Amino acid sequence: MLRVLHVGDLGQKQFGALYNTFERKLVHGLIRADFCVWEFSDKDLAKFLAPLGISRLGVRRMMTALTRTVDNFRPDLLVLSNTRKLPNEFIAGLRSRHPSMAVACYTCDPLFEPENLAHQQARRQVCDALFTTTGGRQQQELAAGPGARVHYLPNPTDPAIEQLDNSRRDDLPVDLLFCGTGEEGHPRTERIRRLRDSLPQIEFRIHGMLGTPRIRGLEYDRLLAQTRSALNINKQEAPLYSSDRLAQLMANGILCFIDRASELDGLLGEDAAIWFNGDEELRERILDVCRDDTMRRKVAASGRERYRSLFASEAVSRYLVEATLQLPWSRDYGWPVDPW
Fold first, then answer.
1. Is residue 335 part of a domain?
2. pTM
3. How do residues 141-190 score in pLDDT, each as one tens digit?
4. Can you tell me the distance from the alpha carbon of 115 to that of 108, in angstroms, rounded to the nearest whole number?
């Protein structure tokens, strides 16, 4: 049986407030795919092993603990999330210590963030395969020059986390939802402000910007359970990119409004979401949905079925393993699989 060690932030220090993360779903998927899996939460251990709980003082102890874990578990594949606490030299040392161990790295942060792009370019030097949730030109630029193969990785959904089906309900009090952070003056913040001000006739909930608090944990789930439709607007649209918000919405049967600039319509299909070009069309489509709940439920049901069938955590996790180890594909995946 293939042994996989996943290293990433599993949010233990959040005490259950973040149980729906990309990392958590990927671990669920690896287990569902019948791999022998062990998980190591680097950020949590750096904090818990540190004097006075100051995480930067615990990094060396955390790396010692990870070395011991690799020695004990002897993984065939080491999977690293977007951790910044492990320097390349340390990863290279683990590889020298265990030469038969393959290494995969992945990031769910966008490549249009310069710091993340630079970090992934460096990571290519110490892994066999690198996975990004951004596709297209930016992914191709990352893959330029020597280093690991670069693959696309979609945001997974897991049935233990996305448990709702709002497409079956007509008793939902929230017409439109947007959750996302943003500073005053940022283009996305101002875009949401203008949209809110132009739609006084609907129940539009916003969390994380414009003076509203972020919402997490059970409180977030309870809000989703009241929601008919939601905006999936990123800080910047990039080919095939979305935050993990998309999985949390679509897989719960919440109708999504998605900018065509994301190019996700090619993966999900026209009937899986409401696609728009520009703010005026978005506003018109929102009002159409609010007037026609039958249409809302039909599109939300189609989107939920499509997202769950395409991006199930088991399929996404198995694909990551097969791509890294260059194994034959066990199924036809519904996203670009060829590496750069």
1. no
2. 0.95
3. 999 989 999 999 999 999 999 999 999 999 999 999 999 999 999 999 99
4. 13
